[in-house]
Amino acid sequence: MKSDIHPDYHTIKVIMTDGTEYETRSTWGNQGDVMNLDVDPKSHHAWTGSAGTILDRDGRVSKFNNKFGSLGL
Hints:
Elements: E1 10-15, E2 21-26, E3 34-36, H1 45-48, H2 60-68
Parallel strand pairs: 1-3
Antiparallel strand pairs: 1-2
């Protein structure tokens, strides 16, 4: 293997959306950094099975629905 081409592999702390935390090894950040997750398997509807909500920022979803809503089944 070539030397000095691989990123540093170190320990970081990950904090889930419900506040639980764990330590893991990663190439992200620096040794001892904390990663706060906005979306994780405990909160995302793809894993929980609940119906997700779409945030309508600046009316983008409304504009899309107005333009393409009639194409649905």
